Amino acid sequence: MIQHETRLRVRYAETDQMGYCYYGNYAQYFEVARAEMIRSLGFTYKDMEAKHDTLMPVMSLNIRYVRPALYDEELRLMTTLRKLPSKTVTFYTEVYNEKSELVCGGSVKLGFITSAKGEGIEAPEVLLEKLRPHFEDTES
Amino acid sequence: MIQHETRLRVRYAETDQMGYCYYGNYAQYFEVARAEMIRSLGFTYKDMEAKHDTLMPVMSLNIRYVRPALYDEELRLMTTLRKLPSKTVTFYTEVYNEKSELVCGGSVKLGFITSAKGEGIEAPEVLLEKLRPHFEDTES
Amino acid sequence: MIQHETRLRVRYAETDQMGYCYYGNYAQYFEVARAEMIRSLGFTYKDMEAKHDTLMPVMSLNIRYVRPALYDEELRLMTTLRKLPSKTVTFYTEVYNEKSELVCGGSVKLGFITSAKGEGIEAPEVLLEKLRPHFEDTES
Amino acid sequence: MIQHETRLRVRYAETDQMGYCYYGNYAQYFEVARAEMIRSLGFTYKDMEAKHDTLMPVMSLNIRYVRPALYDEELRLMTTLRKLPSKTVTFYTEVYNEKSELVCGGSVKLGFITSAKGEGIEAPEVLLEKLRPHFEDTES
User: Fold this and answer.
1) Is the Cβ–Cβ distance between C132 and C84 less than 8 Å?
2) ipTM score here?
3) Residue C139 lies in a domain
4) How far is CA C135 from CA C41, C82, C85, C93, C139, in A?
5) DSSP output for C15-65
6) Cα–Cα distances in Å, from D79 out to A20, A41, D5, D34, D126?
7) pLDDT at position B15, please?
8) C76 falls within a domain
């Protein structure tokens, strides 16, 4: 299992007239969270596309909203990878506000495709080798 | 049951470098679809907020992505309301491309709160009276 | 000169906690307006990219805001092309609300580059031939 | 004069199919930059709204784009306040990429209004007292 924390602040542009962070913005926040988790492993999603010809289209998104996030709040995003990727990978993210209250939680499932042909493939070895050390203990 | 169709075109701003409509934008598209369904009933979400002091915060969002939508495609959004709202309401939306292929499908569950106190309430009568005629047949 | 009108409705996602359409969204609205102008001429920006290997990166953006646009307002976007494109093209757009009051006005200047090499080029002939008939009277 | 630097990273959501950071996103980046400048002075825009009943609607936006910003680049935003605010305030922001090349530069002019009546007012004293120490030298 891998767990990673990242932080970001709600922009004015991201609020709506209800005074809440608009519900659709969390998809972006989750994207930031998983990109930062991958970076923390010494790899980047950018390189996966640019150097390894692998794209990761999203297959499903699920979010349960508990309370609103407000303008200028620094949110804490806790992202967990519970299983090694195979043909797909699922990231679970929980968002907490400055009082450590749960704002929302959700999951994003992504696939792997080649950028050339768009065919579904297994998770690339270059990613797996970064991830395996974190899963060895729990699998033994 | 109520079903409503609305159309919108993918903006350049909404594409990403994969050449797809970014996965987070569908939350906005679903918002447009449910607002247009309500308008088709002779009511508006705008008036619900402005005249009836009722806000509808989102409680959950689920989307399953089947194929990408591309820049400039005119998407057809098919939204269904299967049950009369009570404390919550769930809208189901399917998105089709110009070839009538399914792009994605999902649901959004919303609650009702008073704008003054933020307390959860039942769906306002002003909305229900617009909806009931569409559900009478299926309930008898 | 070419003038073209298009309409769009302010989405909830596009409002901010001030209750206004966020100032950054007009860049998207201007994009929709110029894409629709090009479509009205029997051409599409999509085809310029996909079939004619020409991209149009933005070189400058200027907007003067007069009054806010509000949620659910149907805005009228009036776009004008005052001169035939050469190495660049400038679109002027004025945005009006439902009371025909000016919301904002601005201009976007774009260049033309080849998608392969990213080199600056002249406006492609396929676009110019659609535009010329509209400029002949004013030039004679 | 006050100058302040802040950094942010281009999100995948913010790219477009040209592979660039979409031109409209810089309005959001400029917003982040000026909010962070105000925070660095020991004040927040959030408090200006919440505690001092003052909103700052945008009056004009001007951007000149020099080169594209790309996905995952960490951008450096250099924001300058050249004059003390009066009825309006203008922030100048330059955006640099990781190679310290200029991506774009622009300015945003904002007014001050009361949240209650929406009337134009002078910059609130609570903001001016934070700013004055930075302008005393240059004015003498």
Assistant:
1) yes
2) 0.95
3) no
4) 13, 9, 11, 18, 6
5) B-TTSSB-GGGHHHHHHHHHHHHHHHTT--HHHHHHTT-EE--EEEEEEEE
6) 27, 33, 6, 7, 21
7) 98
8) yes
Residue spans of beta strands (DSSP E) within chain D: 2-9, 54-55, 58-65, 74-81, 88-96, 102-111, 113-114
Q: Tokens 């998105």 identify what position?
A: B95
Q: What are the residues whose beta carbons fall under 8 Å from the beta carbon of B133, sequence distance 6 or more? A: none
- Paired tokens of C129: 């031939």
CATH value at residue C98: 3.10.129.10
Q: Are D65 and D23 in contact (CB under 8 A)?
A: yes
**Does residue C36 belong to any structural domain of this protein?**
yes
D14 Cβ contact partners less than 8 Å away, ≥ 6 residues apart: D21, D22, D25, D71
Distance from CA of A11 to the nearest CA of C (A): 10
Whether residue A28 lies within 8 A of chain C, CB to CB, comes out as no
Which of A39-43, A121-125, C115-119 has the lowest average pLDDT? C115-119
- CB contact under 8 Å between D12 and B15, yes or no, is no
Among the partner residues C18, C27, C57, nearest to D24 by beta-carbon distance: C27
**Does an H or E element contain B46, and which?**
helix B45-50
Q: Which residue of C has its CA nearest to A19?
A: C17
- Residues D36-44: contacts with CB within 8 Å, 24+ apart? D36/D4, D36/D6, D36/D79, D37/D2, D37/D4, D37/D6, D37/D79, D37/D81, D37/D91, D38/D127, D38/D130, D40/D4, D41/D2, D41/D130, D41/D131, D41/D134, D42/D130, D43/D126, D43/D127, D43/D130, D44/A72
Cβ-defined contact of D13 to B19 (cutoff 8 Å): no
First to last CA, chain B: 12
| Minimum-distance CB partner of C13 among A19, A22, A71 | A22
**What average pLDDT does the segment A19-25 reach?**
97
Structural domain boundaries, residue D35: 2-139
Q: Model-level pTM?
A: 0.96
Q: Which pLDDT score is estimated for B137?
A: 61
How does the average pLDDT of chain C come out, rounded?
95
Residue C44 Cα distances to B42, C38, C41, C130, D95, angstroms: 35, 6, 8, 11, 32
Average pLDDT over residues A29-39: 98
CA B62 centroid distance within chain: 12
Which tokens in the block code for residue C14? 């596009």
The reply to whether residue C13 touches residue A19, judged by beta carbons under 8 angstroms, is: no
The neighbours of chain D, by the rule of 3 or more Cβ pairs under 8 Å, are: A, B, C
How many domains does the structure of chain A reveal?
A: 1
Express each pLDDT in D10-61 by its tens digit.
999 999 999 999 999 999 999 999 999 999 999 999 999 999 999 999 999 9
